[in-house]
Amino acid sequence: MNTDSDPYELRSGPPPTDTYLHLRVAAGLSPKTAEAAEAGLPNTWHGVTVLHQEEPVGMGRVIGDGGCFFQIVDICVTPEHQGRGLGRRIMAELLGELQRRAPQGAYVSLIADGDARFLYEKFGFRQTAPASVGMHRTV
After folding, report:
1. d(CA 31, CA 65)
2. Contact in structure between 59 and 11 (CB atoms under 8 Å)
3. Which helix (H) or strand (E) holds 93?
4. Global pTM value
């Protein structure tokens, strides 16, 4: 919702496939195929898209099993709209929904690229190393 003094609207739900693909690349995230996005986006547990004058400029999603484990993914804002607190607003919306609907004790994780860790730390996320380390593999 936006007001006259706030030019941004946060809209619940994952973005459409074309918007998702565009925002990832525009914000510097790795590109995904339309096939992958079309398969993955419907499995979003909770998502948010940021609009500026009806133009998508940011997004974020929560994925997971709906009970024990959740992961925050696709947090991004296009460069021309960065530095305006939109990443913070996206995170607040996603975490608010997790607090409302996720079972107590659910494990919420994310991968922090670069300086994004400073934003995530403000929301209570902590590095898991050395007790555990994040690992990944691409298929």
Report:
1. 24
2. no
3. helix 86-101
4. 0.92
Q: Please state which architecture CATH assigns to domain 8-121.
A: 3-Layer(aba) Sandwich (3.40)
Residue type at position 115: D
- Written as six digits, the tokens of 125 are 């996320």
**Domain-by-domain residue ranges, the chain?**
8-121
Q: pLDDT tens digits for 32-51? A: 999 999 999 999 999 999 99
Residue with the two structure tokens 């919306």: 93
pLDDT tens digits for 78-100?
A: 999 999 999 999 999 999 999 99
Q: Is 10 within 8 Å of 90 (Cβ atoms)?
A: yes
At residue 80, the 3 state secondary structure works out as helix
